[in-house]
Write a structure and sequence with these properties.
The structure holds 2 protein chains of 2 kinds.
Chain A (H helix, E strand, L loop, with lengths): L1 H15 L10 H4 E17 L6 E7 L5 E7 L3 H6 L12 E9 L5 E8 L5 E7 L1 H4 L1
Parallel strand pairs in A: 3-5
Antiparallel strand pairs in A: 1-2, 1-4, 2-3, 4-5, 5-6
Chain B lengths: L1 H24 L14 E3 L10 E4 L2 E7 L11 H14 L12 H9 L1 H4 L18 E5 L2 E6 L4 E6 L16 E7 L2 E7 L19 E9 L2 E9 L8 E10 L27
Antiparallel strand pairs in B: 1-4, 1-11, 2-3, 4-5, 5-6, 7-8, 8-9, 9-10, 10-11
Classes of the chains: A alpha+beta, B alpha+beta.
Chain lengths: 133, 273
């Protein structure tokens, strides 16, 4: 019976929704939600493409050697709905970035928060918008 | 609880129907040649939707909707998103009627969606997967369908000419249209057998045949696709959607960013939505 109600709810949702949600890969298949990484560096590029926008962060180590991290985030349509642009994602700025690490050990993460020099933050989250209103 | 949910569902359905019938009662404009005027942006247009962000102090919180989950808390949300996606697919009310002997192959394709789905790797969705158009441009003898996702167009003659026989199969196939009363009927043939009909492993054969119907009543457009594949299906598969005319200037179509797939090679499991 529970499944029946859920199916009805899904059907009602489909009848009302403006369009299908875009879903790409499983975040679980690529990133470890239990493993975060904090990176400080320059956002040298924001690649505004489907199905996921990518930030590229140039992170210097203690010796000055720079490693470029790839940081994946939501699709362009989701970011655009929130008014985000390349600039608002830190393009050309030095930022502190918190992300979930890639399971394969590459210099790759999924964006959680960007913190700017003036203390402002952009947080990217899965969750219910009603819970934070 | 169960009764409350059913009431909510009934109310939603009733409200939707009331809204649609109000739109249906508006007069249906016609073009100079007497056909219903299908011109316009239909549905969401412009990729906009309900607000998905909240400013909390110095923090702008941008949310990808996962009902009931606190976005600020830590959780097992990545897996939860996949679990709900699988559940939604399993409970889909309208699935293609595959022949029973294809069940094993279908499950394999579904399980390996993140490896096999052509659209996952930025190939076109094609007809019929991409659904109703975002905009219709109607001229005497020709209808042009525009799809904002992946910047796709289809040019459909409505002057009575037959299907072309000089083209290789394509993702959107070869379309010819005709008017049956006030309904535009589009016959689509020669669709490439590489495309899928949906993300749940829904493959098809070179025998795929699609008939789309467009009917405007007031400011509502009913779009349906009747899909048949005699090699794969036990009968036709019909899906229907009703869209509203979108007259908001903000709904104007804009170019979609290109599709460049970078995640596939980094997947360490076959999990998918």
């Amino acid at each position: 019976m529970r499944l029946g109600i859920r199916a009805l709810l899904v059907a009602a949702g489909l009848a009302i929704a403006a369009g299908p949600a875009v879903a790409h890969h499983s975040l679980f298949a690529v990133f470890d939600e239990g493993q975060t990484v904090t990176l400080k560096g320059l956002v040298s590029k924001v690649e505004w493409v489907n199905p996921h926008v990518y930030l590229y962060l140039d992170v210097p180590d203690a010796t000055g050697k720079v490693t470029t991290w790839s940081v994946e985030t939501f699709p362009p349509s989701t970011l655009r709905r929130a008014g985000l642009t390349r600039e608002k994602l830190g393009y050309g700025q030095n930022v502190t970035l918190l992300g979930y690490k890639a399971r394969n050990g590459k210099d790759l993460a999924f964006l959680r928060t960007i913190t700017f020099a003036d203390g402002r933050e952009v947080m990217i989250a899965l969750g219910d918008i009603k819970e934070v209103r | 609880m169960t009764r409350a949910l059913l009431l909510v569902v009934a109310l939603l359905v009733a409200l939707t129907q009331a809204g649609l019938s109000a739109q249906n009662q508006a007069p249906t404009p016609r073009t100079a040649d007497g056909h219903p005027d299908l011109n316009g942006v239909w549905g969401g247009g412009g990729g906009q939707g309900a607000p998905n962000f909240v400013q909390k102090g110095d923090t702008l919180v941008v949310v990808f909707q996962l009902d009931g989950a606190d976005p600020l808390a830590a959780g097992n949300y990545f897996q939860e998103l996949d679990r709900r996606g699988s559940e939604r697919k399993a409970a889909a009310p309208n699935k293609p009627p595959y022949k029973p002997e294809l069940a094993t192959k279908l499950k394999e394709a579904s399980d390996l969606q993140s490896k096999l789905d052509p659209a996952f790797y930025c190939k076109p969705e094609g007809v019929p997967r991409m659904g109703a158009p975002s905009q219709i441009v109607q001229t005497p003898g020709q209808v042009v369908l525009l799809y904002e996702g992946r910047n796709t167009f289809r040019v459909i003659p409505t002057d009575g000419r037959p299907h072309r026989d000089d083209l290789e199969p394509t993702w959107n196939g070869d379309s010819v249209g005709r008017w049956e009363g006030d309904t535009l009927v589009v016959d689509v043939a020669n669709i490439i057998d590489e495309s899928w009909l949906g993300a749940d492993g829904w493959f098809h054969s070179d025998a795929l045949h699609v008939v789309e119907r467009f009917r405007r009543e007031g400011d509502a457009l009913t779009y349906s696709a009747t899909v048949d594949d005699p090699k794969m299906f036990t009968g036709p598969w019909v899906s229907t959607r009703t869209l509203r005319l979108n007259t908001d200037p903000a709904g104007a179509l804009v170019e979609s960013p290109p599709c460049i797939e970078r995640s596939g090679e980094n997947q360490v499991t076959n999990d998918h939505h």
